[in-house]
Amino acid sequence: MTAHPRFHMALPIHDIDAARQFYGSFLGCAEGRSAEKWIDFDFFGHQLSLHLKPEECALAKSNDVDGDQVPTRHFGVILDWEQWHKKAEAWKDLDFIIPPKIRFKGEVGEQATMFFRDPSGNALEFKSFKDPERVFAR
Predict the structure, then answer these.
(1) What residues does each domain of the chain span?
(2) Which of 18, 21, 26, 103 could be bridged to 119 by S-S, CB 3.0 to 4.6 A?
(3) What whole-number distance in Å separates Cα of residue 47 and Cα of residue 10?
(4) H or E element, residue 99
């Protein structure tokens, strides 16, 4: 069985220590290489490179999706159903953009979702599908 390719994503941040606290301590992502102006994390098996560039840290505009204003620029991970619910409960006191909810209820794309920002304003979405085979279903 061939493993899926990993993605690499680079984002601007305004503070290395705040990023280290958020991605490392809070989300539990292992820290990889780093230098004075960047830091890498193992983001659920993918490489996330955060570059110190405060002038590029702007909040994304949003788009209406199923009644919510979803940041058009966001990233995240698809967790299994049980893991998503455990995270939603553990993180219930976060300052959410979109609090934990079930979107598209009863439809092909039904999913659990929640959105929040990192300390630099980058929007993250954690989502789950009760049936993982439905991730790309139309």
Answers:
(1) 8-56, 62-134
(2) 18
(3) 8
(4) strand 96-103
Q: Which residues are paired to 77 by β-bridges?
A: 126
Total-model pTM: 0.91
From residue 57, alpha-carbon distances to 24, 61, 99 in Å are 20, 13, 23
| 62-134 shares the fold of 8-56 | yes
- The backbone torsions φ and ψ at residue 134, rounded to the nearest 5 degrees and listed phi first, read -95, 5
Rama region for 13: left / alpha / beta (φ>0; ψ in -120 to 50; rest): beta
| Alpha-carbon gap, residue 71 to 73, rounded angstroms | 5
Q: Are 86 and 126 in contact (CB under 8 A)?
A: no
Give 21-67 pLDDT, tens digit per residue: 999 999 999 999 999 999 999 999 999 999 999 999 999 899 999 88
Question: Cα-atom radius of gyration of the chain, to the nearest Å?
Answer: 16
